[in-house]
Amino acid sequence: MSTARFHFAAAALTDRGCKRPSNEDAFGFSVEHGVFLVCDGMGGAAAGEIASSVAVDEVLNLVSDHAGNPAKPLEQVLEEAIRAANAAIYSGAQKDEQLSGMGTTLVGLAVEESRILVFNVGDSRCYRLRNSRLEQISLDHSLVEEQVRMGRMSHTEALRSPIRNVITRALGTQTSVTPDLFELDVEVGDLFLLCSDGLTGEVPDRQIESLLAADLPLEELCARLVDAAKKAGGHDNVTCLLVRAEGESVAE
Question: Whole-model pTM?
Fold first, then answer.
């Protein structure tokens, strides 16, 4: 009998796109500690950039500090880190009038042995490519996607809706926030994509699937995704973070 011993490889790329004057997206990851994050900030002036950077730093540091600590379940570590990030952003906005209303989405992935925990707040997404098939793991916290899930709007109508960018949950805009958590099994070869809506708003899932299926280094795949978003209009900042499960079978 044999089992897989996993290790992970990652690469990321962010770009301000073709229309925005600055980049309010942020990403961060630690392969060593098994945590990977993408955030898409919002707010006037530089507020969005601050919110996304604070969220990445808070969650990355707190999860990394608790990595491998068996005394506390990973789910609890993630929830505490997200609450801390929310509090830091909200507090910063309360103290500085120029930062009022700032917030950020968050999508992340945490690794614990042979399982993955995906977590998100807002409409930045996590996908998994397995056996050349792309599957969206996270659920958007957006007004139109919630209407789609309730059967009140079609996917086509959602893509064309003038309110498609309205999100219903974000870090830092309220005193508390509840993330979604998804637990997944892992297989060697699984490829996870964390991305801001600057990618998914421009590039359809079928094209993302085709681009990710190419046998290329992760850095090149990131570059191709960003390039596709920019060629489609690049109306928003775009960030892609790829995480590949690698490993080998070992005898027990």
Answer: 0.92
Longest dimension (CA), the chain: 61
Calculate Rg over the CA atoms of the chain.
18
Task: Report pLDDT digits (tens) over 206-246.
Answer: 999 999 999 999 999 999 999 999 999 999 999 999 999 99
How far is CA 31 from each of CA 34, 138, 158, 202, rounded to the nearest angstrom? 5, 21, 36, 29
Domain ranges of the chain: 2-251
Domain 2-251 maps to which CATH number in 3.40.710.10, 3.30.420.10, 3.40.50.300, 3.60.40.10?
3.60.40.10
* Beta strands, E only, 94-212: 103-104, 106-112, 115-121, 125-130, 133-136, 180-185, 191-195
63 Cβ contact partners less than 8 Å away, ≥ 6 residues apart: 33, 35, 77, 78, 81, 110
Express each pLDDT in 19-68 by its tens digit: 999 999 999 999 999 999 999 999 866 799 999 999 999 999 999 988 76
Torsion-angle region of 251 (φ positive above 0: left; ψ -120 to 50: alpha; else: beta):
beta
pLDDT for res 62: 94
